Amino acid sequence: MEVKHSELKAVKKLATKNNIKNIHDILPDGEDNEFTFMDNRDALYFVDLNNKTIEPI
């Protein structure tokens, strides 16, 4: 499943607000508006755009 450009922008914006930089490998994770991504230290994060939360995994 492809990630839309608007979803990529939203994930990157939320990550920046949480001082997470250089994110990559943004992938959909199950339900709508839920994603996982990695940062430059290869830390894995879960993002819920509905609740605007980021949690390290």
Task: Write the topology of this structure.
Elements: H1 5-17, E1 24-28, E2 34-38, E3 44-48, E4 53-56
Antiparallel strand pairs: 1-2, 2-3, 3-4
How would you briefly describe this protein structure?
The chain has one helix and four strands. It is of the alpha+beta class and 57 residues long.
Give an account of the 3D structure.
With 57 residues, the protein is an alpha+beta fold. It contains 1 helix and 4 strands, in the order αββββ. The chain has one helix spanning 5-17; strands at 24-28, 34-38, 44-48, 53-56. It has a 4-stranded antiparallel β-sheet with strand order 1-2-3-4, covered by helices on one side. Strand 3 (44-48) and strand 4 (53-56) form a beta hairpin. The longest helix is centred in the N-terminal third of the chain and has 13 residues, at 5-17. The radius of gyration is 10 Å and the shape is globular. The mean pLDDT is 93.
Give the DSSP E fraction (strand runs of 2 or more residues): 25-35%
* Amino- and carboxy-terminal Cα gap: 21 Å
* Cα-atom radius of gyration: 10 Å
Structural class by sheet pairing and helices: alpha+beta
Major sheet: order of its strands? 1-2-3-4
Give the CA-based shape: globular
Mean pLDDT: 93
Give the H and E element order. Answer: HEEEE
Query: Which residue ranges are poorly predicted, with pLDDT under 50 across at least 5 consecutive positions?
Result: none
Number of helices: 1
Q: What share of residues is helical? A: 10-25%
Number of strands: 4
Main β-sheet description: 4 strands, antiparallel
